[in-house]
Amino acid sequence: MSLQLGRNVFGDPAHQNNVLAREEAIQLLQTWVLNPKLQLHMLQVAHLMKCWAAEKEQLSELEVWKWEMAGLLHDADWDQWPELHCKKIIEELEQRHIDPVIIHAIASHGPAHFGVIPETKMDKMLYAFDELSGLIHAYALMRPNGYAGMDVKGVKKRLKEKSFAAGVSREEIMEACTMAGFQLDDLIAFIITKQPAVPLN
Questions:
Q1: Could you give the count of Cα atoms lying within 13 Å of 151 in the half-sphere of its Cβ?
Q2: Is the Cβ–Cβ distance between 48 and 195 less than 8 Å?
Q3: CA Rg value for the chain
């Protein structure tokens, strides 16, 4: 099954700065994603994107929401329509006249799968946070205190264990870090610091 999108341009430039209201985005998430574990993953990635955009990039409230919205909806069609991932969510957002930068970030969050290379900072950070946050969350679930007391060394040890969270691509994690221009240790530390704000379940 090929998930290649076959294009690199998404949305209409005339729709710049068009976004969903938070309530609309949450409703879309809850309607399309029935798996609570996947919902949690998307909420976690959205939280990381929001924190990074606000703290590291010091963006405006609107721009921060764009980053968060990309994280919130990046896997929206994976639960019910895996064979259409992420064609269906892209088409939905295009029909809703959403800002092309948000759609491009979603389209490029798995370049090996979708054939779209991350270009903007939003693109690159969504790619970087996606797989890595999943592995770190899996590690948190097996620890008595979750994220509390977790350190970079422990995460990197799990990264080296190919049997741990075997579905998480180590190659994609390293590629994403390189594309984003950040050290793996720094991204791990950021995720550890921010993720306790998201429930562990």
A1: 2
A2: yes
A3: 16
Question: Which one-letter DSSP state was computed for residue 4?
Answer: -
> Please, are residues 185 and 193 in contact by the beta-carbon 8 Å criterion?
no
Give the whole-angstrom CA distance, residue 54 versus residue 12.
26
Distance of CA 82 to the CA centre of its chain: 16
Q: How far, in Å, CA of 90 to CA of 103, rounded? A: 6
Integer angstrom CA distances of residue 1 from 4, 82, 85, 127, 168: 9, 10, 11, 21, 19
Cis peptide before 86 (omega within 30 of 0): yes
What are 153-165's pLDDT values in tens digits?
Answer: 999 999 999 899 8
The CA–CA distances, whole Å, from 117 to 110, 113, 123, 184 equal 8, 10, 8, 20
Whole-model pTM over 0.70: yes
pLDDT greater at residue 33 or residue 1 = 33
Candidates 106, 81, 76, 74; CA nearest to 10 is 106
Contacts of 157 (CB under 8 A, 6+ apart): none
Q: Hunting for tokens 């294009």 — which residue is that?
A: 7
pLDDT at 71: 98
Distance CA(95)–CA(43), nearest Å, equals: 23
**Do residues 20 and 102 make contact, with C-beta atoms less than 8 angstroms apart?**
no
**pLDDT at residue 139, rounded to an integer:** 95
